[in-house]
Amino acid sequence: MKTQTRLRAEVDLEMIRFGSLGLHILVVANWRSRKWRLIVDSGATHSILAENAWLPAARPADEPVHGIVGNPSLNTGLFRVSGMKIGGVILPSADWIMMDLGAVNQVYREAGYEPPDGLLGGDLLKKIHAVLNYGSSTLRFYRNPYSPAKRIPVNLLAR
Fold first, then answer.
1. 40 and which of 25, 47, 69, 100 could share a cystine (Cβ 3.0–4.6 Å)?
2. What pairing do the DSSP bridges indicate for beta strands 138-142 and 48-50?
3. pLDDT at 67 over 80
4. Which ranges of the chain does DSSP label H, i.e. alpha helix?
């Protein structure tokens, strides 16, 4: 099967250079009637919503799945996010960390950029079969391109 037949959607990415700090990649998502600018970080283990963006969008029924996550000195919580869309693709329901991104926001402001609303991490990028295409500055979503690997039992004690 050719790759094009598995392509579900493709969205443009915003590439921001921070001099010696490197390149930040952002994508726009839609959730709860607003746009969310998310840093795409395939190395992040969890997706994050910025506290200053999350709190105005929170609803009374939103309760943390889990309270403090990680370092107790950080004001964080784990919240279930459902229905977020990127380029018409609905992301699977997932737990996102809500935390203060003040330091990141400050770097963006000082460089003259609008601060991000969060971070799309490797946890969701893997679930949605997303591929970053640096050449075309796009994020591509594929139908499940991988069939489960066959497990072959290996008996290490066999002679």
1. 25
2. unpaired
3. no
4. 3-6, 51-57, 102-110, 122-127
